[in-house]
Amino acid sequence: MYTNLVAQLLSHSKIAVFSHIRPDGDCLGSQVGICLWLQQNGVQVRAYNQDPPPENLHWLVDLFPVEPPPPADLLDIDAVLFVDGNQLSRFGELAESLAEAKIPLYMIDHHPDPSDIFTDMISVPGASSTCELMYGLYQAHKPDQLIPAACKALYTGLVTDTGSFQFESVTPATLAAASDLLARGGFRPNEIMDALYANKSQGQIALLGKALDTIETHFDGRIASITVTQAMFDATGTGPSDTEGFVKYPLSLEGVMGCVLFREDADRIKVSLRSRSSLDVNGWARKINGGGHAKAAAGWYKAPMEQAKRAVLAIGEESIKQAKNTLSSLLLLTMFLSWAVLAGACNGVGQNGEPNGSTGSQESTVQSQSDLPDEDTYRMGDEVEMNDDSGMRALSPEQRYAEDSEGRRIRGGAIDRSRANAITTAVEKASPAIVSITVTELQTGFAPTRDPFFSFFFEQPVQREVQSMGSGFIISADGLIVTNEHVANPNAKTIMVTLPNGSSYEAEILGSDELADLALLKIQSDTTEFPYVEFAPTDDLMAGEWAIAMGNPFGLFADGQPTVTVGVISATKRDFRPDPQEPRVYIDMIQTDAAINRGNSGGPLVNSNGEVIGVNTFIFTGGTSNGFVGLGFAIPSERVQKIIEQLKDSGEVQLAFDTGMEFTPMTRGLVRQYGLPPVPGLFVLSVNRNGPAYESGVLPGDIIMRIGKERVASQMHAFALMREYDEGDLMPIRLFREGKEYETEMLLRRKVIE
Questions:
Q1: Pick from 605, 718, 581, 571: which is nearest to 659 by CA?
Q2: So what's the pLDDT on residue 19?
Q3: Catalytic residue among 109, 280, 517, 702
Q4: How many angstroms separate the CA atoms of 570 and 710, rounded?
Q5: Is 473 in contact with 481 (CB distance < 8 Å)?
Q6: Mean of the pLDDT values across residues 590-605?
Q7: How many Å apart are CA 440 and CA 496, to the nearest integer?
């Protein structure tokens, strides 16, 4: 989506960036964010808006200056980029005049129905904000260019255009973007919230009080309105920008489908529309010189206040009726379905969709077991001879599978060739090597008792067996299995693996690594002809190519078939910087939208050639669900192979290097104790003068910001990053010291374990 526009923007040397009139947080945040990106990539850029920023957003233009557009400056530019608006009329009179210019006009926006005047554009009406699209541009080009100033600007747009992440447009991807911006920017959410909302003057509070007194309802309570007049501004010493957020108050009334804010401007009435139902306020706004989204839109009407209110409400009446009809239809459909289910339950619908009994005069053609003569009924314990004419035959285990002309083992014989494709071929190739893993652990607890006195003085701990399930895959003919460490770890009492052919074996752990979340198992059998899969490299993975997740979600492997879900590679090289207490660190993860659910952990992510490109490890739910929402992550095959080789040789990962220094994660306590700047990273506590750190120039009090190209977040994260190097390598380090950043290289030496 971003490739073409990025290439075109970076082909210019001078670009003007316009944001829409009466700027808001998403408008200025996206403008500042894209200007910082262009500047980092060698493009001369100027930011323009004909209106001044609201008081609570003045700090944004300190990150990158936004000024009124002087006509003379526009004569010397190569191209113009418009953000957070898709019609030239949204950007002021000077911007509208550029329609006749002989230069490229570009646009990035998340509103529907864009103009066709633009040379190229990114238009995603489903996005939560334009700032979310700007974040995607950074990710598609160079994520490391997300400097703190850009992170703050983009996070501001996410907050303001989603109602602090409350609107329906918020998705797991929105929250993932916000989390990444916080991590990269090194700031806390409250810093932005305070800057936006914790600086109200007495006049602004007084204005809100006057506005709340005007709330009224219309159309039998379906629509609420709130009004702000020029007289209110004059009485409180405030202005139009101080009404930010007022529209949400009437929307909170019970039974309201939508609301309208009427605000008196110099020569017109500004109208803001919001919906929390099927009411489409975008269609309403388009009839009053505006537009927006289905749930949030705006327009204007030229008339005195009371006349404008009557006219705008009358114009919106059709949209309100449509929304009411939609709700009525949904209610009727719900009632019908409920009645149908109830009727089916009362009439006893059977497996064939026919009632099990008859209430009419016609005799039933099906007899229940109780209607049959007793002498015709065989019961448990009776001696019964099998009917030789039944055609039943016994199958040997080998006959459970048939083999087609190409040698592929397929259940039930021939496969319809018209349905065979690369995906089915890959699944057939990999399926025999997929295993279900059942782990039994002993957990210590206390037996329940109803006597609290006895429980307090005499209760003894008891052990109980707890089973869990996961997935894995065989990587060698002698039965080596790869899975996640959180599926099978040294605490396991027994580990049983089941193959698709129904055979089960006990397995032992050859080694596991908690940091990498990988474990290597060995099937306890003398067989040396197990089916197995091979690894494929991931350095050339492309976003959009097929990805196949295979495993045992929810224990569905019992019938001998691994579950197969298909999606695409969504992204590569995703890093997850955990909490300092988190024992696992995930680096360079593969992201996929192939469905991964509970029990899939440890199973393979396979390419269209049937080769393993990763180990399915975890999903991101956004805190809204326990199931899959389109964000799954797998450990890449190169990392898996590197860890597994060492587990096979020694049962543990021998990647412990002697850095010659002690460090701890940066905290607020350290910032206060040592008077440090709030720079995220690792604070160096001490340095051995004979160690690699001192030799590379590292001193106590330094803050290590990066190891290699990665920002470092915790001690475990640092150790995981070091595993990317071998003994004798020079490991790049970036550190912060006395207001400046420095780069150096540390020679890695093996830690001597006595």
A1: 718
A2: 95
A3: 517
A4: 20
A5: yes
A6: 86
A7: 9
Q: In the 8-state DSSP scheme, what is residue 363? A: P
Kindly report, residue by residue over 342-381, the tens digit of the pLDDT: 444 444 433 333 334 333 333 333 333 444 455 555 454 4
Contact by Cβ (8 Å): 5, 34: no
> Which one is predicted more confidently, 9 or 617?
9
Residue type, 233: F
Record the tokens describing residue 377, joined without a space. Answer: 């009924």
Cβ atoms of residues 341 and 291 within 8 Å: no
Cβ 443 vs Cβ 562: under 8 Å? no
Q: Which residue has the higher pLDDT, 170 or 720?
A: 170
**What are the Cα distances from residue 102, in Å, to 74, 79, 118?**
12, 9, 12
Residue 445, beta-bridge partner list:
462
Apex 584 CA angle, 736 and 596, nearest 5 = 125
Q: Is 517 a catalytic residue?
A: yes
DSSP 729: -
Please state, in angstroms and rounded to a whole number, the distance separating the CA atoms of residues 312 and 304. Answer: 12
127 DSSP 8-state letter: S
Percentage of the chain surpassing pLDDT 90? Answer: 34
pTM of the model: 0.44
Collapsed DSSP state (helix, strand, coil) of residue 535: strand
Phi, psi of 530 (to 5 degrees): -70, 145
Q: How far is CA 547 from the centre of its chain?
A: 18
Task: Specify the DSSP element, H or E, that contains 619.
Answer: strand 612-619
Can you tell me the distance from the alpha carbon of 687 to that of 697, in angstroms, rounded to the nearest whole number?
10
**What six digits make up the tokens of 692?**
């690699």
Name the catalytic one among 19, 275, 570, 601. 601
Residues 317-325: contacts with CB under 8 Å, at least 24 apart: 317/219, 319/279, 319/280, 319/281, 319/283, 319/284, 320/219, 320/222, 320/223, 320/257, 320/258, 320/279, 322/280, 323/257, 323/258, 323/275, 323/277, 323/278, 323/279, 323/280, 324/222, 324/257
Token couple for 440: 């039994």
Least confident of 89-103, 122-136, 231-245, 387-401: 387-401
d(CA 35, CA 137): 12
CB 150 within 8 A of CB 142: no
**Tokens 């599978």 appear where?**
401
d(CA 36, CA 58): 17
Q: Which of 31, 25, 309, 277 is nearest to 158 (CA)?
A: 25
Residues in Cβ contact with 439 at an 8 Å cutoff, skipping those fewer than 6 apart? 467, 468, 469, 470, 487, 488, 492, 494, 495
CA distances from 109 to 165, 263, 499, 548 (A): 19, 25, 51, 33
Mean pLDDT over each residue of the chain, to the nearest integer: 80
Alpha carbon separation from 166 to 169, 174, 295, 563, 686 (Å, rounded): 8, 11, 12, 35, 45
Higher pLDDT, 670 or 427: 427
For the chain, how big is the Rg over CA atoms in Å? Answer: 33
Counting Cβ atoms within 10 Å, is residue 464 exposed (0-12), middle (13-18) or buried (19+)?
Answer: exposed
Q: Please tell me which residue in 486, 513, 702, 717 is annotated as part of the active site.
A: 486
